[in-house]
Design a protein that fits this description.
191 residues, 14% strand, Rossmann fold, binds adenosine monophosphate, 5 strands, 5-stranded parallel beta sheet, alpha/beta
Length: 191
């Protein structure tokens, strides 16, 4: 198995690089942001529960997020690996992910951080907002999401760094060049 975490602020290019990773390594993509957006769009009980907090740009509670993630992993017993995107965002989520992987007799093999400056992130999201009109990219929410990343989510990085599991890749440059750097990291673990 090849289990990967992709990390980076909103607008870092996680979505774009994730598509390329899935194609090359045949892993199941689990994006907690996409899952939450699906639930809110379809007004599921979970969606109704998290709609307000999502629209505010704040993080959904660990309990809810971990339960949703676990369910999604368990839906894919035949997977040859997973790409976790937007998860973990807190240390308890990172610990829960390790436990979940352990219960499946596997582990997280690579944690890839896309390193992008705050200024670059702001300019990219402004462009995306025009193209896709994502509700959570509205100005006030965008600010909150950027802050959530740089104030809270970054605290997960030392958790992986201390265990020598973190690979930082420069997220500024052309898409294929960035992907080649990611592939160099992943090829060390792919069999
Ligand atoms: P994203 O597209 O990954 O930026 O996620 C969009 C929104 O979904 C976030 O602003 C949070 O409200 C929620 N969300 C996504 N992933 C998580 C997570 N791992 N923990 C808590 N909230 C999350």
């Amino acid at each position: 198995m090849l289990n990967i975490v992709i990390f980076g602020p909103p607008g870092a290019g996680k979505g774009t690089q994730s598509e390329k990773i899935i194609e090359k390594y045949n892993v199941v993509h689990i994006s907690t942001g996409d899952l939450f957006r699906w639930h809110t769009k379809n007004d599921t009980p979970l969606g109704l529960k998290v709609k307000e907090i999502m629209n505010s740009g704040e993080l959904v509670s660990d309990d809810i997020t971990i339960a949703m993630l676990r369910e999604e992993v368990e839906k894919n017993p035949q997977a040859s690996g997973f790409l976790f995107d937007g998860f973990p965002r807190t240390v308890p989520q990172a610990e829960a992910l390790d436990e979940l992987m352990k219960s499946l007799g596997t582990e997280i093999h690579a944690v890839v951080e896309l390193d992008v400056t705050e200024a670059e992130v702001r300019s990219r999201i402004a462009k995306r907002k025009e193209l896709e009109g994502r509700v959570d990219d509205a100005d006030d929410k965008l600010e909150k999401r950027i802050q959530e990343y740089f104030n809270k989510t970054v605290h997960v990085l030392p958790f992986y760094k201390e265990q020598n599991r973190l690979s930082t890749v420069n997220g500024i440059g052309d898409i294929d060049g960035i992907f080649n750097s990611i592939a160099e990291v992943l090829d060390q673990h792919a069999s």
